[in-house]
Design goal:
Helix content is about 40%, strand content about 25%. The protein has about 280 residues and is an alpha/beta fold. Helix 2 runs parallel beside helix 3.
Length: about 280
């Protein structure tokens, strides 16, 4: 197995199973040398907590990149998650240009919206910057809300395959690489992931559990990235990541006190086994 070095860029919560707190252990478990660039440090994540601390690290990003350049440090792959501003996106693009090994894979989760709305603090300017970042990616992983914002199509809670194909067609005009569209549901008891490239659509359907947990998008994106860099196809990577995420939710559901994420750590052996 090739020993690959990946850089993941997103915020980190001291407590709260999301973003880097999820990405670092999952990518490491997948056998990757995982390097991190925190875009911000929080005492807890923002879902369900109040009074949390927040330290913005935007202005540290250029000096970190400059140090890496001076040391000749480069990466086989990049995976970006939640980025807090258009300025951070510009700095990430600089890192793509200056710290990539030949053929480096760029995976972008345009984490900025869900359930038909942008996250607090984001605006149309941020969406325009995210479009540029997605255009430079080899793989993008939007949900349906993010896809609608990136393409300018109206968001729909109810939809059919024609609507999904319209989203994918516009996304493929934005990103020439692989599109992994999450949360695509055609029936009440199931949901799934669409993988699309060069006009070819593949759909992985999986169970839909009656629970909503923080950080599951990050669990999915991290497991997908790990599987992809272990040589799995995009569809197989999506299946591995989706199944792992479902089992993490299932394990967490009986514990009503665990509201800040999913118990992904006990199931890391299952994820590792699925990559063999």
């Amino acid at each position: 197995m090739d020993y690959k070095r990946i850089l993941t860029i997103q915020d980190i919560s001291c407590l709260g199973q999301c973003s880097l707190t999820v990405a670092l252990p999952i990518l490491s478990a997948c056998g990757l040398e995982t390097c991190v660039l925190p875009s911000a440090v929080l005492s807890t994540h923002t879902g369900g907590f109040t009074g949390y601390t927040f330290r913005d690290l935007t202005e540290d990003m250029p000096s970190i990149r400059a140090h890496w350049q001076s040391e000749g440090i480069t990466f086989d792959a990049f995976y970006t998650g939640y980025l807090g501003s258009a300025k951070q996106i510009d700095y990430v693009r600089d890192i793509f240009r200056t710290c990539a090994r030949p053929g480096a894979l760029k995976i972008v989760d345009p984490a900025c919206a869900d359930n038909g709305s942008l996250y607090a603090g984001f605006d149309a300017e941020f969406v325009e910057s995210m479009k540029v970042l997605c255009s430079e990616a080899d793989v993008i992983l939007p949900n349906i809300t993010e896809a609608s914002l990136l393409t300018g199509l109206d968001y729909r809670e109810s939809y059919d395959e024609a609507y999904i194909r319209a989203l994918l067609a516009k996304l493929s005009a934005l990103c020439a690489g692989t599109i992994v569209l999450t949360g695509v549901s055609y029936a009440p008891d199931s949901t799934g992931v669409v993988v699309y490239k060069n006009g070819k659509l593949e759909y992985y359907r999986h169970e839909r559990l009656a629970a909503s947990c923080h950080g599951t998008g990050d669990v999915f994106a991290s497991a997908f990235t790990g599987a992809l860099l272990r040589g799995k196809t995009p569809l197989r990577s999506a299946a591995v990541a989706a199944d792992y995420t479902v089992e993490c939710i299932r394990l967490t559901m009986p514990d009503k006190t665990h509201k800040y994420g999913v118990k992904f750590e006990p199931l890391l052996p299952q994820l590792i086994a699925s990559l063999e």
